[in-house]
Amino acid sequence: MPANFTAVARADLLARLRATRAPLAEARTLPRAVYTSKAILDLEYHELFGKAWLAVMRDDDLPGAGSFLTHEIGGERILIIRGEDLRLRAFHNICRHRGSHLIDAARGQLQGEIRCPYHAWTYGYDGRLTHASRTALDFATAELGLTPIALDTFGGFVFINLGPAAGSLAESLADLPDLSGYRLSDLQRVHRVDYEINANWKIAVENYSECYHCPAVHPQLSRISDLVSGHFEEGISFNGGPMRLRPGFSTMSMSGWSKLGPMRGLPADKGELVHYYVVYPNLMLGLHPDYLLVHRAWPHAADRSHIVCEWFVPPEHRADPAFNADDILEFWDLTNRQDWALCERVQRGATSMGYREGPYHPAERCVHAFDKWYAEQLSDWLWSA
Ligand code: FES
Ligand SMILES: [Fe+2]
User: Fold this and answer.
1) Where in the chain is the domain with CATH 2.102.10.10?
2) Does 119 sit in the ligand 1 pocket, CB within 6 Å?
């Protein structure tokens, strides 16, 4: 827990966060420090990304025993690997001998063992220490396995939780709306784009959460989506809601037309809606009648983020000879880039001494819900700091 807040700075921050936590009509946006302060980013790494369930990959990203993927968040290096028993497990990507970082590659396939590059201790895919070079292994090898990290899956997404007291993922997502009509576990990724943006990760989440900016910035999106049709849903783990497609359109894409129609089994009332949800802290789900769009925002610095954007479609569409994702990929890449430019503008504003907390427009209810959730968390951390 970083302690580099003076009492005055902390009291000032808490007062400003109280203003964000007020009801929408009186509330004020978050203070600039949450977008610029390294000390607050360190708190987020420790208290939020270090304790929350985080969606890091899809279950089918690692096809067989020994296939692995590494991930880094706030300096914590994580190894996710499929075992001989085909179970996925997550570990801290460091050796139990003298702590060497184990695997550098972002992903790959191991050949029978995890081997430390330093003194060549080896571990099984299940994390057990199997060989310590030039020793008789007369120490308690059972206690020298790789340090495990909690891992669970939901809707085909693999979540990890770095916290020492991680509760169950199912419980933490229990209040999500019923998404079963979208067959999340069956969906297949058709594309991924990684964006690096010069803005705090929360600015990207806030931008995702409103369409107040859409008429001015997204002419292609505004042609297809009824911008005032949204209504608001909120739980402990999420906020968001649906927006209606304008008459004559069947999906969000350059053409606005879905050649293959809605995914099989989708309830009829979802056919004209796109549901957007932010699942705290950093997972954004865009549920379209015929595809799923996912954004994940990862902090790299107080003023820099890595945004992973992925598109998923049902297997019956993927297998159809008429399937072509270009229409949706082009649409969202264009929209994303329009949004990142806005996010970077806000980041530049947050670095200014002239920044003042502003009011929320009624159309920014989801932004306020996210900011309020965040302000509550940050206030708790500051009280206990
Ligand atoms: S640090 Fe890994 S074997 Fe020594
Ligand atoms: Fe936007």
Assistant:
1) 54-171
2) yes
